[in-house]
């Protein structure tokens, strides 16, 4: 068969299959991300039906997927949200980072993956999935709860921290050396400060560059600028995603809303490719070997995440049950963990075992997270009833 | 009363206050503009027992239901101070000649020396309706005037 024809058929089957998986995820009420990963595992090397000949497309498309994921994340936040969050919840953010980066880093060191592996795994276990968490809060009708601002500010702090973590990791993985690495981090920090200042003072200017009454022109401009910025950021070793994230922050409110509307379908498409490609590049035959480590990591990092959420909610004076709810809501890990693992693996300087471990871990946490958020109230109720002494008669 | 405003990054804005009984009541405005009514729980004040999505019309209707008795009470309070002036509410019946005609057509002020201060339709109050306000069967017309004037006003709305 003609090679183009074969590629089209494979891609078509792939996307259609993802559509079916997405529908299943919707029925089960879970995030489609773990199912996309499973889809990738099934069709990759060592899977049931290896796909070949679509790499030229999927390679670029998955890069675009990361750029769009982070661009839309940036679009969700305004600069004032970020600065306000930083002012109020920096302590909660630090507690969250220390508690949740530790399990990943320690696991990597135990497995003998060295400091680079530890740095990458720290990110994998640290960052909650803002997509899954926001969806769960909405479904459970907890958006109006008093602990919800604490949950959201932990997510904001994590996302903001990514703007520094990703460049640091990129520099470290590229083995740039200390001076060059320091320069990269300085560039990232400088960019972050400049973007926040520009967005706070001159948000309209950035928006007017992309604004257009025609949605077609608008789409092309936003998409074009995003890729340009991501490319420049990538060439400065700041990581493409961070460039897109900062651009998203700089675009101000109304424009950001329109941009989200036109870009969301593209993001869904390309991000799906990204998750599938990650699954494709993971050999499912390696999963049994890392399963014990992944389960241990899941248990420990569930506990540490609950602790971080508990602390954040206590900071703003939420009651006992609300603190547990905040902790359980944050348990889910997802897209960011895969983005970080993907970044680490492309450089080839970490142990390839990171791919199956990160995949298995995210599969567990993306499913465990929403369950934890649901069961926290009944579990808390049962425990308090048992602990509370019987009323004196 | 203090209305507390909280930004929810990526979601919208929450405005709420605490009632004297200790319950929190508020409105969550999502970024796309749709609104939710929030009511806090009795046992766990941090949680919401109800979060009800409301369309614009529903939000307005709820606001009026809660605000309308106030409006009428205020009117009555104001009128009570003036001797001989009262407030009354008359329905526009299905057979009324003014079903589908404007407030100006009734010439209420010139004919009876009363004023139409508000019209309640489907639980929504239109305060101080203008002369081009069109009545519909089922409207409740709030009229201010003397006892005689009010009697005439009722007759006009009923039979022309």
UniProtKB/TrEMBL annotation, chain A:
It comes from Actinomycetospora chlora. Gene3D superfamilies: 1.20.1530.20. InterPro entries: Cation/H_exchanger_TM, Na+/solute_symporter_sf. This is Cation:proton antiporter. Keywords: Membrane, Transmembrane, Transmembrane helix, Transport. The keyword Transferase does not apply. Residues 20-372 form the Cation/H+ exchanger transmembrane domain. The chain crosses the membrane at residues 6-26, 33-51, 57-78, 90-113, 160-178, 185-203, 223-250, 262-281, 287-312, 324-345, 357-376. It is a multi-pass membrane protein. It is found in: Membrane. Belongs to the monovalent cation:proton antiporter 2 (CPA2) transporter (TC 2.A.37) family.
From TrEMBL, chain B:
PANTHER family: K(+)_H(+) ANTIPORTER SUBUNIT KHTT. Pfam families: KhtT_N, TrkA_C. Residues 75-159 form the RCK C-terminal domain. This is Cation:proton antiporter regulatory subunit. It comes from the Bacteria. The lineage of its organism: Bacteria, Bacillati, Actinomycetota, Actinomycetes, Pseudonocardiales. SUPFAM superfamilies: TrkA C-terminal domain-like. Coiled coil: none annotated.
